[in-house]
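Try this one yourself first.
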């Protein structure tokens, strides 16, 4: 029977229960250093921790690495691929939570919820609606209903957010995604942009721009100085993807100069954000500490999704959520089937 080593407990017991239905599960919670080394050396599957090349070299039987999240930046995918190790993850388990969080940030920025809450807690006095106008004040709040939102990325999160924006707030939805079917986008009532050179035109039309795409070489700093310049001066940028998709220095300059209307930020580059990050001192920004997808309801979905993908790989079946699809044809991987 194959073994899966869990150095830390899974996010929900349903994941471990599913694994135990087919493989032997070794928990590292109570193992000493020698026991952990032995468990790693005998593991066919590994889940729940960052994994680098050195760790892989200490696990010569390893066939699959599972990461219980929508991203997998903490796994050295290139090293795994070179060793014929599949990397699977749990994309889709948190999409509704992240879409809700994006809407929450849109509302918090545009309706001055974040600003008003900070003021009342800090000053410990009531200000009233008149306190939002005049020098030093952010101006009256805005509705989001009927506005235009541009989504960068039209995957699980983008599609759910588009549906929520249209159904709840009657918003016009634009989306940038080079890989999505324009016929299907039109069926969903979304205008799709597929070419990178079209991005400035999309940005110029939007009241809100929401980043909900994965971080890759293709998307790193997809929002930089030129893209921020293309945005309207009252537009709001929302980032619920990964911090590296935005040039933080350029965004800081745009916010400090009021070149854009504000931002809602859940992710940072690097992460965790350093103490005294310049964003922390800006009043036109609402900040959360990468909690968009981490809700109670998502925990069993994350655990069972990554367990299901790991079991598929260990059975010799191609996983659906495979970070390195080329590894499935690698000789090292085939030899283990």
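Now uncover the answer:
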């Amino acid at each position: 029977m194959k073994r899966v080593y869990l150095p830390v407990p899974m996010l929900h017991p349903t994941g471990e229960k599913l694994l135990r239905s087919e493989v032997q599960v070794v928990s590292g919670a109570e193992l000493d250093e020698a026991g952990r080394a032995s468990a790693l050396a005998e593991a066919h599957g590994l889940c729940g921790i960052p994994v680098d090349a050195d760790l892989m070299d200490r696990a010569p039987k390893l066939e699959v690495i599972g990461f219980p999240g929508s991203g997998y930046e903490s796994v050295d995918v290139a090293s795994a691929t070179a060793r014929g190790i599949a990397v699977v993850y749990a994309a889709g388990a948190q999409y509704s939570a992240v879409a809700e969080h994006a809407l929450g940030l849109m509302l918090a920025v545009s309706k001055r919820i974040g600003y008003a809450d900070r003021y009342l807690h800090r000053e410990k006095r009531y200000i009233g609606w008149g306190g939002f106008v005049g020098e030093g004040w952010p101006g009256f709040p805005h509705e989001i209903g009927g506005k235009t939102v541009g989504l960068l990325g039209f995957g699980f999160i983008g599609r759910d957010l588009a549906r929520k924006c249209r159904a709840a707030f009657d918003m016009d939805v634009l989306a940038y995604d080079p890989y999505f079917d324009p016929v299907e986008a039109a069926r969903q009532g979304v205008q799709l942009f597929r070419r990178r050179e079209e991005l400035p035109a999309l940005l110029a039309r939007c009241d809100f721009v929401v980043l909900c795409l994965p971080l890759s070489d293709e998307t790193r700093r997809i929002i930089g100085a030129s893209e921020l310049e293309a945005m309207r001066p009252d537009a709001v940028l929302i980032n619920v993807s990964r911090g590296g998709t935005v040039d933080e220095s350029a965004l800081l300059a745009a916010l400090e100069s009021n070149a854009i209307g504000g931002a809602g930020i859940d992710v940072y580059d690097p992460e965790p954000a350093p103490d005294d990050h310049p964003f922390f001192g800006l009043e036109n920004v609402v900040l959360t500490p990468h909690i968009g997808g981490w809700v109670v309801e998502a925990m069993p979905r994350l655990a069972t999704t990554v367990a299901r993908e790991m079991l598929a790989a260990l059975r010799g079946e191609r996983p659906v959520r495979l970070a390195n699809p080329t590894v499935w044809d690698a000789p090292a991987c085939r030899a283990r089937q």
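Discussion: The first strand starts at residue 3 and ends at 6. The chain has a mean pLDDT of 94.
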